[in-house]
Specification:
The structure is a single chain. The chain is mainly α. Helix content is about 65%, strand content about 5%. The chain contains 23 helices and 7 strands. Strand 2 and strand 3 form a beta hairpin. The chain is flat, with a radius of gyration of 30 Å. It starts with a helix and ends in an 8-residue tail after the last helix.
Length: about 525
């Protein structure tokens, strides 16, 4: 029998903002959410406002979370009962494991009995609602009333973690969700603006120091170099830093000002060559940003303008390796946009021009590793399209060329881990090209070479998720090859190793959808003819 409310209240001294109910199979997700909620600060403009007769607090703590498995008994222990009584709301982490947990169902039932008028918030972290909502959550109460819980969907194809957390804040405080989102966004924007202004201040300070060192130059030239140097910094170095924290949107205003700077120039053709080259790099950086934000039309406009400038500069000095390199980047970006839009024939034409320019670069500077690397990238792009189009002979030729070139680059920089990873990819592409020819044993040899490189990289950096992912994918392909060749025991062993590694990756980042897709693929049995 469940104790009555009065019996529980007898020892009640503590107060909790919410009770976090979850299956211990979801311990990691519960810990992360609990930490976020207890450290989250309500936006200042909302603190103290009245919602439902109560003032909005500064923080959401304390939130009760039991840290040990419940004992093997038939009812909830005293600590949990007391915490449920002392909680203003119930927050349930919903998953298939939670639905199957009798303790989660018992906690919901007791909370609903103790506080029929208090909110219950359902946080869906995995699975579909029908497979994840505990029975007690959607059951009718003693009066036959069905209470629909407040829902926050953490899945990336729905609300996503950020919006779901803010929905929980809204449910716990009674503040409308749109106000929470607006105030939280304003607070984050103020932080970004502050960081940006500090960066701008430091950049301007550095520019002033450069002007002081180069004071022998004319004032007009110094100002031009200042302005263009600042623009390039904002669209290259600072852009990379902000990209790492997902804040490229802050640079939209900077992009417009950069274009405005050049638009104010009376005659672009009269600008020095280095200014035109800098403008090209800015256009390419802006195009990349636009494309990542999904503004394809703007990206194409930037790339085409960059192409026009690099083509003009190259025509004036056709044997200048730097101008060849700049125009090669223009060809690549236009080809890349076509490739991402599934326009493979158009992309192939661009990538072939890219390869021709890279070949000219290595002819002029045969000892330059970066130029050889560009050639390997160009050949790799053509190889990728040939594989996608299932062009057997063209795939074999282009993938072999990409492999040979990257092997040469590796000889020039044997200790560069990035180049080693590029070479491993070329062995993988070559294996796919050979399989397309029906040469499974030769393909297996290429996969073995890929595996040797990846094992070496993982010995040097065992925590590198990218290397571990590549190694997992390599064993997936090798297991299929071995199974087709009759080496079933080794195939199954490699498949088991890959399954263990993808499980490790998924545990490291449960929100990574690609890893979950591969986890499902690896769970399927080996069959003849698998690729």
């Amino acid at each position: 029998m469940i104790e009555g409310k009065d019996a529980i209240a007898a020892g009640s001294t503590q107060h909790y903002r919410a009770f976090l109910s979850y299956s211990h199979a979801n311990e990691h997700a519960a810990g992360k959410l609990h930490h976020w909620l207890e450290t989250y600060r309500i936006p200042k403009r909302l603190v103290g406002t009245l919602t439902g007769g109560a003032a909005v607090p500064r923080r959401l703590s304390p939130i009760f979370r039991d840290r040990a498995e419940l004992p093997a008994a038939s009812s909830l222990d005293e600590q949990v009962r007391m915490a449920l009584f002392q909680s203003e709301a119930l927050l349930v982490l919903c998953s298939p494991a939670a639905k199957a947990s009798r303790w989660v169902n018992a906690e919901i039932a007791l909370f609903r009995e103790l506080h029929p008028d208090r909110p219950i918030i359902a946080a869906l972290i995995e699975g579909e609602p029908a497979d994840s909502f505990p029975t007690a959550l959607i059951s009718r109460d003693a009066n036959g009333v069905e209470h629909e819980p407040i829902a926050a969907d953490f899945r990336t194809d729905s609300d996503g973690p950020k919006l779901a957390r803010l929905k929980i804040v809204a449910g716990l405080t009674g503040v409308p969700l749109d106000q929470i989102i607006q105030r939280d966004a304003q607070r984050q924007l103020r932080r970004v603006i502050a960081v940006t202004f500090v960066a701008l201040f430091l950049t301007l300070l550095m520019a002033a120091m450069l002007v002081f060192v180069a004071r022998a130059r004319s004032e007009a030239e110094s100002q031009r170099q200042q302005a263009e140097g600042l623009i390039e910094f904002m669209l290259t170095d600072l852009r990379e830093k902000l990209e790492g924290v997902g804040r490229l949107d802050v640079l939209q205003t900077v992009n417009k000002r950069a274009l405005a700077y050049y638009a104010d120039q009376p005659d672009l053709q009269a600008l020095p060559t280095d200014s035109l080259e800098r403008r090209t790099r800015i256009l390419q950086a802006m195009g990349e940003d636009d494309f990542k934000r999904g503004d394809t039309a703007a990206a194409i406009a930037q790339f085409r303008e960059a192409y026009r400038v690099t083509e003009t500069l190259l025509s004036a000095a056709p044997n200048d390796p730097k101008r060849l390199f700049a125009h090669a980047q223009s060809e690549f970006w236009l080809g890349y946009v076509d490739f991402m839009r599934d326009r493979n024939d158009a992309a192939l034409s661009r990538f072939r021009s890219y390869q021709t320019l890279a070949e000219r670069m290595v002819q002029l500077r045969p000892g330059n590793r970066a130029y050889w690397q560009e050639l390997g990238y160009a050949q790799g792009n053509i190889c990728t399209i040939a594989l996608a189009q299932k062009a057997r002979d063209r795939a074999l030729q282009s993938c072999q060329g990409a492999l040979d070139t990257m092997m040469r680059v590796r000889q020039l920089a044997p200790d560069d881990a990035n180049i080693a990873a590029d070479l491993a990819n070329r062995h993988a592409w070559m294996a796919d090209a050979l399989r397309m020819q029906g040469a499974d044993r030769a393909a297996l040899d290429q996969r073995e070479k890929q595996a040797a490189i990846l094992r070496s990289l993982l010995r040097r950096d065992p925590k590198n998720a990218g290397h571990l992912q590549d190694w997992m994918l390599a064993r997936y392909s090798m297991s299929n090859l071995l199974y087709n060749l009759g080496a079933t025991d080794r195939a199954r062993a490699l498949r088991a190793e890959a399954q263990a590694d993808v499980a490790q990756l998924v545990a490291r980042d449960p929100a990574n959808r690609d890893w979950r897709v591969w986890q499902n693929k690896l769970a399927k049995p080996l069959t003849k003819g698998s690729k």
